[in-house]
Amino acid sequence: MSEQIYGIHAVNSILTHSPERLIEVFVLKGREDKRLQPLLNELYSLGIGVQFVNRQTLDKKSRW
């Protein structure tokens, strides 16, 4: 069973406590801030897929 989580803090928490639960992470294309880069580096080092997508795609993925 798969589940979706939303937000940088939620992803950070899963990454810290049970990174094996993360399969792929979607990030808003063009987003650049101090909190995101270390998170991306950790995801890359663990081989977790990262996709940069536009706002419309994120909105579609977050609808129930």
UniProtKB/TrEMBL annotation:
What positions does the domain RNA 2-O ribose methyltransferase substrate binding occupy? 5-62
Which taxonomic lineage does the organism of this UniProt entry have?
Bacteria, Pseudomonadati, Pseudomonadota, Gammaproteobacteria, Pasteurellales
One matching Pfam family is: SpoU_sub_bind
Query: What would you give as a GO molecular function for this chain, any one?
Result: methyltransferase activity
Protein name as annotated: RNA 2-O ribose methyltransferase substrate binding domain-containing protein
Domain of life, per lineage: Bacteria
